[in-house]
């Protein structure tokens, strides 16, 4: 882009120089920059701005001149020279322009077109970077969402496992309590069983012994 703009200005400069003996210097990338000359006085600028506000054509010329001064893609002295003759060249109708003024208008157009291409390229570059950043941001957001979902699932699984562990602990405690109760009941039943066995043994001894003798009258006969 810089090469195209430089060639356009170089061609215009050559044509203008052949007709009027004046050659404009090339853009900054073709020669070292030169220090800008001192600007006009504040009073002159103020009067020009006031007049430009009253005349729409002068206002447009002032806008073009400001754009030239702010472009920064050409040497400052070239931009200052072109911006200084914008009004004298562009404010006149095309049919009333001298060849010199038409040549200046063409040069101004080439400079502005070059600046437009440079800035369009810059915008495209920045848009590409922003687009790449958006893609990367979307990828990071997707990764963050995936991680958050994984953490949520693992947290739920952990909570389920903790509840199961708590329930298992409670069940084990209940089982231990039931075992203790069963053991106590078993001890009681053992004591009862032993007592019942003793009573059964005494009953059997009595039935087979004293009761049998009394029943048969053996003791009464022996006493008689």
What is this structure, in a nutshell?
By secondary structure, the protein is mainly alpha-helical. Helices cover 83% and strands 0% of the residues.
Strand content: under 5%
Determine the number of helices (DSSP H or I, runs of at least 4 residues): 7
Number of strands: 0
Largest sheet: none
Rg (C-alpha, Å): 57 Å
Name the average pLDDT.
76
Low-confidence stretches: 1-23, 28-37
Distance between the termini: 155 Å
Shape field: rod-shaped
Structural class: mainly alpha
What's the helical proportion of residues? Answer: over 70%
Order of helices and strands: HHHHHHH
Describe the structure.
By secondary structure, the chain is mostly helical. It is 83% helix and 0% strand. It has 7 helices and no strands. It has helices spanning 2-20, 42-54, 56-71, 76-84, 86-90, 99-216, 218-223. The longest helix is centred in the last third of the chain and has 118 residues, at 99-216. Residues 1-23 and 28-37 have low confidence and may be disordered.
Describe the protein's topology:
Blueprint: H1 2-20, H2 42-54, H3 56-71, H4 76-84, H5 86-90, H6 99-216, H7 218-223
Helix pairs in contact: 1-6, 2-3, 3-4
